[in-house]
Design goal:
The protein is an all-alpha fold and 202 residues long. The chain has helices spanning 2-7, 12-27, 34-41, 47-52, 55-75, 80-93, 95-101, 112-126, 138-160, 165-168, 173-185. It folds into 2 domains: 2-52, Arc Repressor Mutant, subunit A (Orthogonal Bundle), CATH 1.10.10; 62-201, Tetracycline Repressor, domain 2 (Orthogonal Bundle), CATH 1.10.357.10. The longest helix has 23 residues, at 138-160. It is globular and about 55 Å long.
Length: 202
């Protein structure tokens, strides 16, 4: 009976990923167990290994999917500040992905799917960093980009961990981020060429 459920489950890979995201959102990535996920998905305990091999493979798939969605979100933003806003909105809208994506010790670093998805996201983040500095290139622009990346990531991380509940106090986090970006970077031109950069691109 279990075997029949395994082969006729439908999209088993999607079912396991969805169950994994639920666990991560509730208890963090360290709580993941392939056996538990198989039970949640209603398949044999060996079925998830067919698609992901092991826990690291599953977390790599989660990260790759997260980076793909992340890149799509960033691509819609017209300028530096709005890319930061998109960053924050992605983190608050997809906290399970966000928890896994930026923990490289959880992934297979050489996974082609993950590498391609990260490359897309990194390119979206660093495009047009020259708009951040008068120099327009070199170390000044690079460091300004790292500062912008740090602001967006730090704000999102503090927000998700509950450390900004008081300061934000029910306000739209995206609007709060816009104010912070204005305080630190001043007004930025609304140009599609503007962007953030990630230290991972070094």
């Amino acid at each position: 009976m279990t075997s029949e459920r395994t082969y006729h489950h439908g999209d088993l890979r999607r079912a396991v990923l969805t169950a994994a995201l639920d666990v991560i959102a509730a208890d963090g990535p360290d709580a993941l167990s392939l056996r538990d996920l198989a039970r949640r998905a209603g398949v044999s305990h060996a079925a998830p290994a067919h698609h992901f091999k092991d826990r690291t493979g599953l977390l790599t798939a989660v990260a790759a999917e997260g980076y793909t969605l992340f890149a799509d979100a960033l691509a819609q933003a017209p300028d530096l500040r709005e890319r930061g806003v998109a960053y924050v909105r992605f983190a608050t809208g997809h906290p399970a992905y966000f928890q896994v994506m930026f923990r490289p010790e959880l992934h297979r670093a050489d996974d082609p799917g993950l590498l391609a998805a990260k490359a897309r996201a990194t390119e979206a983040l660093r495009t047009g960093v020259s708009g951040l500095s008068d120099a327009g290139r070199g170390d000044d622009a690079r460091l300004a980009g790292i500062a912008a990346w740090s602001l967006a990531h730090g704000f999102a991380t503090l927000l998700l961990s509950g450390n900004l509940d008081g300061p934000v106090d029910g306000r739209d986090p995206a609007e709060v981020f816009r104010v912070l970006a204005g305080l630190l970077f001043g007004e930025q031109p609304r140009s599609p060429a503007s962007g953030l950069t990630s230290p991972e691109s070094s």
